[in-house]
Amino acid sequence: MLSSVLCKHCGTPVPSQREDGFCCTGCLYVHDLLHRQGLDHFYDLKGGLSLPPVSPQSLRERDYDWLEELSGNNAKLSAPLTPASRAETMELRLSLQGISCIGCVWLIEKVFTRQAGGLRVNVDVVHGDMTVVYAQALFDPVAFAKDLQSFGYLVGPPQEGEQRGQDKGLERRMGVCGAFAMNAMAFSLPAYFGMPAEFAFASWFDMIAAVSATLAMLVGGSYFIGKAWQSLRVGMLHIDAPIALGIIAAYAGSMGGWIAGVEGLKYFDFVAIFIFLMLAGRWAQQAAVERNRRKLMRDTSVPECVKVLGEEQMKPLSVLKAGVKFTIKAGQSIPVACRLLSDHAFVSLEWINGESDAQQRSEGQMLPSGALNIGTRSVEAEALEGWQESTLRKLLEARRPGEYRDLKLERLLRVYLMVVVGVGIGGAGWWLMNGAGVAAALQVMISIFVVSCPCALGVAVPLAEELAASRAERLGVFVRNLGLWKRLMRVRRVVFDKTGTLTLENPVLENPQALKALDGAALLALRTLVTGNLHPVSRSLFDAVGPGTAATEAEVTEVIGQGLQWRDGEGVVWALGKGAGSDALFTRNGHAVAGFLFRDELRGESVEEVRALGLRGLRVHILSGDREAKVAHIATQLGLKPERWISGMTPEEKAAWVAEQDEDDTLYIGDGANDSLAFDAALCAGSPVTGRSFLEQKADFFFLGQSLRFVSGLLDTARLHRRATRRVFAFSVVYNIATVVAGLMGHLSPLAAAILMPLSSVATLSIVAGTFAAQRQNEARVILKTRPRAQLKRPALA
């Protein structure tokens, strides 16, 4: 069972080893900052909603050069202010990471109003962006972005592309078809209430309903018909096929009945309303997933362009060939294998091979493709290969398979369609053989096609997806693939990467008392040294010290053999480097101030989670590129036998192992580029958010926080999702049998179909909502029984 203690800031479960009531140091920092600045109304607006945990990496120093260039404000802010320049306004659209609720919108607006020159801000939670309007000569976009970052919100370039266009297209279809549905319903109701055929405007009412249904077919019906046709062309049978069948049958019958003057065939209002409801369901189904996909911005450590020596303009990566000399900025990945031209460089290989220790390279040595420049300065290198041949390009361009094909569902749909078509045609034939007219036989056939459409499933399944995704968010997990829940039900093997996945992203400080003994000046100096540096020791000390004030315009230098140095305003030289008896020594003018010790540590509740997965009958494995001794130590802690872990693996070897062992039943969880190929070979895949990987952008789900206990929770949610959808399916079977029988007996008129469709949708929505609500009540009762009495009280806002 998951921890019953929830984080005071984000509301996700607190790892068992933390005693401060927060899931991570990022949430602790933001919680304290909100109270210090009098912004604790944020928690009243948030209510009981869970938020994404504030990853400590999101609070580290970031490069905002792109924002200066985008806004063009660097020259404006230094120019003399004139009445004309004060009046000049600019509008800027930016993407946002970290927004989840109305509390986030309120907080961002509060932060914006305290910026000089800010005129208006509009936050779009659904699309994950904001638009700011400001006086260009007074407003500093970078200062605003840094202010937001201190609260855990990251600002990025505006998101454009095909997916955003598809989202807006579906929204427009839904809105337009909603208007057509209202028109069709309004002009069909008089006939249902007994309007005589000879009424002067009766023909006009029919025409308006027909035109509304036709426009709904063109705008919205074409969406489902096109999807169904595309799936059939590639040999797939999608749920859009029975939807398209019902739409076409109802529209064709309605047009024929209108032309022939047969009232029993007019389903115009049904056509328009049905299309609107199906579009609304499809939009809701995709909206939650797209929100999660937009919660993370593209990884900025992978460069899109490089600075070629001797060239003024930045060049695309495609210009890199053997012999080309170029510059690698601090914090960026090395795009191709190259030879170092600078005197030295500090790199991290954990992204490529899982090796967690930082590496020092000297002039003339090789830098592998995908290594991360964790030094404080740019370095120069000579390419040994072209971009097309690089390992990093191959890993970046690897893609997971497309939409998951549920063969069982396809077989079920095939049988379902054959039965519906057979019953519809057979029923029409039976009525014709017994002396009924063609119109009556057609009404029977069309009514069966109409009521057999999976309209209830079309609105209930999206609700199940939304509720399951919301439940996962309370665990700190964000779903990016609609097929995840079905895939999770097939999982029989869970494979973990080690570094950054089973273990925490950064080593843990063993002697935090050394920090507590530092005075204010020493803390300022230490924070200045480690802020923005990507060395594992610096990252760990940053997390331990916590975000806060660092010296502005500080020039931190990197000295070979001595680590980082900074000279403060009084001429005191502070340094952080290696020292005897410690992993890192902090000095003042060469004299030791503090020594720090670090250790690799498992993520919270990893041992309990591996044990729990074993009790479920799942096989747990570790595939790592790290050294054998380190992997063996972690495997021993987890209680895994030697045959369940392998060390020193390359990306290709990981992928080959998964492909060989996988029986369409493997869940792979990893965080490095060396896991990319294995991701593509697995049934489903997840990734922690580290801020230096692109895997969360291609994973089926990503997770925040420091605990691994979510895996069991995710599997439980998949079972709950299946339970809800099975109940809806059972109801739909009973509903379809009853309505088909009524249709065969000739009792299913257009009015009955128009009434039954929304009623069945409401019933299935209630089934789904009731299933999830009952599970939540059961869990709440368990938590009340297990939680200590002192924790039942709401924590005071202090």
Automatic annotation (TrEMBL):
UniProt-listed InterPro entries: ATPase-cat-bd, ATPase_P-typ_cyto_dom_N, ATPase_P-typ_P_site, ATPase_P-typ_TM_dom_sf, ATPase_P-typ_transduc_dom_A_sf, ATPase_P-type_domA, HAD-like_sf, HAD_sf
Listed name of the protein: Cu2+-exporting ATPase
Keyword Disulfide bond in record: no
Keyword entries, A-Z: Cell membrane, Ion transport, Magnesium, Membrane, Metal-binding, Phosphoprotein, Translocase, Transmembrane, Transmembrane helix, Transport
Putative metal-binding domain span: 7-47
Membrane topology, from the record: Multi-pass membrane protein
Bilayer-spanning residue ranges: 174-195, 201-225, 237-261, 267-284, 415-433, 439-464, 728-745, 751-774
PROSITE patterns per UniProt: ATPASE_E1_E2
GO CC annotation: plasma membrane
PANTHER family the record matches: ATP7, ISOFORM B (PTHR43520), CATION-TRANSPORTING P-TYPE ATPASE-RELATED (PTHR43520:SF5)
GO aspect biological process, one term: copper ion homeostasis
Similarity remark: Belongs to the cation transport ATPase (P-type) (TC 3.A.3) family. Type IB subfamily.
Primary localization class, coarse: membrane
